[in-house]
């Protein structure tokens, strides 16, 4: 586990708390239902960041007797939880928008509220980019999920700011809850997408096609002396990619020679994909299926 990932996750909780404070202040100054909804979404954002920090800490634990393949999937559990929290936030925002429709009113001090909320939005936007960049580079589902959650918060705030511009200009107070309702729909869609992606990881979904293609290429290039590799299976677990396949070798090859080929393949994966765990089953020539990876 990179200490960088852990520090970013911890900083995310702090940033979320600062943004929540600013948005709460903006709502208190204006009394806007859209700003209240924005602040409610940020409360869940802080809780989700804390869950991501916990999950990343757990996933860093080494394998033990009860979890012999490690704790990497803890990050997917965090991502699912964040998706659920995003959906809860969307429903909460819709509820506040509904009550705003029943009793619409122009917000107080819209310019001041706009400045405060705008500052929170800028902070969130910058932090969103950091989370997504680091999460993707370090292959951390929890950080990527946290980044997407923060992105929904940014979208929410942008929608609120648009409403703040339109409400005083048009004199239509109903636009305040209308903007909140539209943003809630976008937040709901993001939460659903996040949960769907994370559940795929929990269900041992295969890596993206380009990763699988690279795996096949590495086996082909570094298995000289073998005949073919077949029954290739791959799955993701957090930052770890598990790779399993059968390696067919000449029937008269010694165990030591076959072991050398396996070592060469494993070393190639370690150089190219240091977060991959390889399991190779060596078979004699008679087991060849001629529909797997052709060795160069």
From TrEMBL:
Entry-linked InterPro entries: Cation_efflux, Cation_efflux_CTD, Cation_efflux_CTD_sf, Cation_efflux_TM, Cation_efflux_TMD_sf, CDF_Transporter
Gene Ontology biological process: intracellular zinc ion homeostasis
Protein's cellular compartments: Membrane
Pfam families reported for this sequence: Cation_efflux (PF01545), ZT_dimer (PF16916)
Upper taxonomic lineage: Bacteria, Pseudomonadati, Pseudomonadota, Alphaproteobacteria, Hyphomicrobiales
Annotated source species: Xanthobacter flavus
SUPFAM superfamilies, alphabetized: Cation efflux protein cytoplasmic domain-like (SSF160240), Cation efflux protein transmembrane domain-like (SSF161111)
Keyword set, alphabetical order: Membrane, Transmembrane, Transmembrane helix, Transport
Record carries keyword tRNA-binding: no
TM region(s), chain numbering: 7-30, 42-62, 74-94, 114-134, 154-172
One GO MF term: zinc efflux antiporter activity
Membrane topology listed for this record: Multi-pass membrane protein
Family: Belongs to the cation diffusion facilitator (CDF) transporter (TC 2.A.4) family.
Name listed for the protein in its UniProt record: Cadmium transporter
Stretches assigned to the Cation efflux protein transmembrane domain: 11-203
Main location: membrane
Keyword flag Transmembrane helix: yes
GO cellular component: plasma membrane
Highest taxon of the lineage: Bacteria
Domain Cation efflux protein cytoplasmic: 207-285
